[in-house]
Amino acid sequence: MVTTPPDGRAGIDAALVRRLIAAQFPQWSGMPVTPVEIDGWDNRTFRLGDDMTARLPTAAGYVPAVAKENRWLPCLAPSLPVAVPPILAMGTAGEGYPFPWSVRGWLSGERADRAHIDDTSQFAISVAEFILALQRCDATDGPPAGEHSWFRGASPAHYDEETRRCLAALEDRVDTGRAAAVWEAALAAQWRATPVWFHGDIAAGNLLVADGKLTAVIDFGTSGVGDPACDLVITWGMFSGESREAFRRTVDQDDGTWARARGWALWKSLLNLTGCIDTDQEEAAVNQRVISEVLADHDTFG
Questions:
Q1: Does residue 156 contact residue 267 with C-beta atoms inside 8 Å?
Q2: I need a surface site. Which of 47, 78, 158, 207 has the fewest CB within 10 A?
Q3: Looking at the domain assignment, is residue 24 inside a domain?
Q4: HSE, side-chain direction, 13 A CA sphere, residue 155
């Protein structure tokens, strides 16, 4: 995770966006610029009028995603069952802002919180169908998993040292013996299949819902071509019971892919828990739940 300087996000404001638009896209100058209600960490996003957004990376580590998304989202969109961000223009550094940035079409919808979903099992099926459709997209010349995708789509072994540090730090706080077994199984289940497209961050905040149904998937900054196991982490982060079974059945991945997916989910939850276990009880409980369910899943299917 990139650490943004303390003033990095504060310096990206509506006034900056207005200056950038006026200088680089005068046809849109004078449109209202307002921050979105729920923003991300990697980018700051602003509404530009009613139908567009301006999206600006908050740190250098997030810059490669700009060109990647602008190049590949128009290629992927026609083959996907729900909307993805429409690319309208790519801006350049200027007005004191050091990075490339993008202008996109606005996608309406609400974050995929359970309260906004009519039927969680059907929603899980829709997410699985999106993942499968993405995997079927032509991966020729697509960006191989690596630094630009924060190594999503590569082996979870990239985070081996970090995971083992977290296990040591959480000794007596979680069942580190069982957790270590899950991690070892993930490393042993090496991926040798044909590279496919993956999103890299299939999570509630990147799924949009309207009328209770999945309507769009956003934020392809960690996408690429490689191992799709990372896209299964939502299994434990969002689904449970019947919805989890519906997702598992529909997405239909092999045992090795599920083993690596458990590794991805475990790594992220251990990392999050290490940072919040003594400071944020609510966030800690969320990550402890995911860890417990990943361990139970390994006991059942591993």
A1: yes
A2: 78
A3: yes
A4: 14
Would the pLDDT of 4 be above 80? no
Instruction: Tally Cβ neighbours within 10 Å of residue 71.
Output: 14
pLDDT at site 9: 59
* Residue 190: inside a domain: yes
pTM above 0.85, yes or no: yes
- Residue after which a domain boundary falls, among 78, 106, 134: 106
> What's the pLDDT at 38?
78
Beta bridge partners of 54: 46, 103
Dump strand ranges (E) for 52-192: 52-57, 87-91, 101-105, 110-111
What's at 93, amino acid-wise? A
Domain residues for the domain of 67 are 14-106
> What span, in angstroms and rounded, lies between the C-alpha atoms of 121 and 241?
9
Q: For 84, list phi and psi in degrees, rounded to 5.
A: -130, 165
CB 103 within 8 A of CB 54: yes
245 phi and psi, to 5 degrees?
A: -65, -40
Within 10 angstroms of residue 235's Cβ, the number of other Cβ atoms is 28
3-state secondary structure at position 56? strand
CB–CB of 290/265 below 8 Å?
Answer: yes
Q: What is the pLDDT of residues 50-97, one digit of tens each?
A: 999 999 999 999 999 999 999 999 999 999 999 999 999 999 999 999
With 80 as the cut, is the pLDDT of residue 251 above it?
yes
- Residue 151 backbone class (left: φ over 0; alpha: ψ -120 to 50; beta: rest): left
Neighbouring C-beta atoms of residue 111, cutoff 10 Å? 16
* Beta strand ranges found along the chain (DSSP E): 33-35, 43-48, 52-57, 87-91, 101-105, 110-111, 196-198, 207-210, 213-217, 224-226
Residue 296, helix vs strand vs coil: helix
| CATH number of the domain to which 90 belongs | 3.30.200.20
Instruction: Count the alpha carbons within 13 Å of 182 in the hemisphere toward its beta carbon.
Output: 28
Give φ, ψ of 281 to 5 degrees. -65, -35
Using a 10 angstrom Cβ sphere, with 0-12 exposed, 13-18 middle and 19 or more buried, the burial of residue 25 is: middle
